[in-house]
Structure formats: C-alpha cells, structure tokens
Known about the structure:
single chain, 401 residues, Cytochrome Bc1 Complex, Chain D, domain 2, 15 helices
Amino acid sequence: xxxxxxxxxxxxxxxxxxxxxxxxxxxxxxxxxxxxxxxxxxxxxxxxxxxxxxxxxxxxxxxxxxxxxxxxxxxxxxxxxxxxxxxxxxxxxxxxxxxxxxxxxxxxxxxxxxxxxxxxxxxxxxxxxxxxxxxxxxxxxxxxxxxxxxxxxxxxxxxxxxxxxxxxxxxxxxxxxxxxxxxxxxxxxxxxxxxxxxxxxxxxxxxxxxxxxxxxxxxxxxxxxxxxxxxxxxxxxxxxxxxxxxxxxxxxxxxxxxxxxxxxxxxxxxxxxxxxxxxxxxxxxxxxxxxxxxxxxxxxxxxxxxxxxxxxxxxxxxxxxxxxxxxxxxxxxxxxxxxxxxxxxxxxxxxxxxxxxxxxxxxxxxxxxxxxxxxxxxxxxxxxxxxxxxxxxxxxxxxxx
Length: 401
C-alpha cells in the first residue's frame, strides 16, 4: 500500500472517530438538556403545587417569603383572586371598588346644599334641640360614637346609630329594614318619640316653612315657597346620596396595589377564607343586605330587641338584624345593632367563638314564646381559631376598608 493510501486511510479513520465522538457528545448533551428541562418542569410544577397549597392552607405563622407570595396572588384583578371560601349554598359577590356617582351639579347641587342645611337644623325636632347631625356626625364616622343614641328629653334608644357612609347605595335601611328609600328613611326619626318626637310630620314642615330663609331656598330649588314633606325629604336624601367616600380598599381593587401592605393583604385573604367574613360581607358594599340572628337580641332584659320581627311579624325574624356595610368600619365603633361591642378586636373575638347565645336564665324567660326563635342563631356563626398574628392581620385589613 502506497504512502498516500495509508495516509488517506489514517485520515478517514481519525475523521470517523471525531465525527463519532461529536455525535456521542451531541447525543449526551441533548439527553442532559432534556433531563434538565424535565427537571425544571418538575420543579416548576412542584413550586406551583406549593403555591396552590399555600393558598388553600396558608400558614398561621408565615415567613416574609410566604407573605410576598400571597401578595403576588392578590396584586391582580379581583376576578383572578384565589377562590372565596364560602359555606354550602352561599352565592357571594367578589370584592369590588365602590361605584362612585358623579358629583351633583346645578339643580342637584342646590338640592344637596339645602339638604345639608336641613340635616343640621334642630328645628326639625319638637324641642328645637335635636338635628339629624346629633346622631350622624361626620367627625364620628357619620354616627355618634355611643352605644345607643340620646333623643328627645334625653330619652335613650335601644339601637346604635347606623353610619351614613355610602347610604345612597344601600337598601333596605335601618337595622330592621323598615325603610326602602332614603326619602322614607328621612321621615321616620322626625315622628319617633325617642328621637325628634314630632307629633306628626306636618308640625316639623310648618316650622321650616315659617322661616323666610327656607321659603327663599325652596323657591329657588323647587319653585315652591311653602314646602311639603316631599320636598323636605327629597332635599335631605339628595344630600345623603353625596356621602360616598372611597377607601384604600377601593384604590387596591382599582390596581393601586401599594395601597395595601403585605399584612393587610394577608388580612384580606383571611377575610375571604378562614374567617368566613365574606359569607355576609361581600361585594362593593361589603354586605349581603340580608337579616341574620347573631344571638344579641337580649330577650327578657332591659335592652331586649326583637329586630326584624317588629316589622314582619314573622317569628323566624325574631332577633334578626340587617347585615351592615362594613366600609369605614374602623371609624364607626361601637358595633352591632345595640353598640354592645366596643372595638374591632372584640368583634373578631365574638365571631371566633361563634357569636352570641340567647338562652333563658330563669323559668319566666323560658316561658317567653319568642325565646325558641331568638335562640335560632345564624348557621353562619361557626367557631374558628386565629393566631395572634392572624388576628392582627385581619384587623389591619378591617382598618383599611
């Protein structure tokens, strides 16, 4: 064999070896990359599963990493939030920003201004000493800061003054739902003998109509110099419909995610899940607008209150009261229909133990025909347990809404 042929043979052998080596390397590299991709996919699935597990069983003592992950799950449109934890059969609205109507202009603005003047005027009361503002003061969260309000001759009512935030969007009104509209609601305190104590609406209207300043104002706004109850209540209701005030919750739900810190987001998660709060407090107004018995009717005691029953005469309504909107709730203490709970921490503890209980203390109370119904508390009152950190997070959220 010639030298050239031997060299060609050697060259071909070396080339074949190199090609084989390269091929083996590429195969090994491909396998390694495939293995790495499979491993990465498995790791990603494991991370995602851990995330889902975290949302379902969020730790009671989370790390900063856990809280950051939870915050990411909520810093997105509400329709993508983790699922609500609801009791069987409950249909609840997701949290949503408050729909803010446009500010009144022109004639509506003039009506609202007249309504504000009437709202502050004690001449609406028989004594000339009590105005709407006595029980619904802006500086006190549109309430009065009392367990129950004082009225005519210092008479004390049984119920806590409901705050007026966003009242124009709510119906029914009052703790027992006795009014459907703001115009109807405005009339009721005027003839309540524990409140403004007028013998009839006409007497309140006459006092207002006798004043030249009001004659001029009603002429300008309603084209009547001698107002009736219809114009008077329309003006007050128009003013009350302006009491819409957004909160940090609205900013957060509108995409301004810095409005809540991680602790408040954790509190929102507890509100929607473990705490069960969203079963009754949901949607943009944070209320289901229904009536529930929380075991606080105090049947047989001086402050007994049968609630919705006084309106419907339905025994199942004994002890039931309207679910209040809890917007601005940190400003509206004390709480419940009778103001019996003085701060948010105690409210949370009240629900943790499963609410109140109405039971007869003696034979006389046991014979009360309302007692069995007063004792039928809402099935939504289910005891649960929060850690100190969870409780503080929930309260931090409540203080931001």
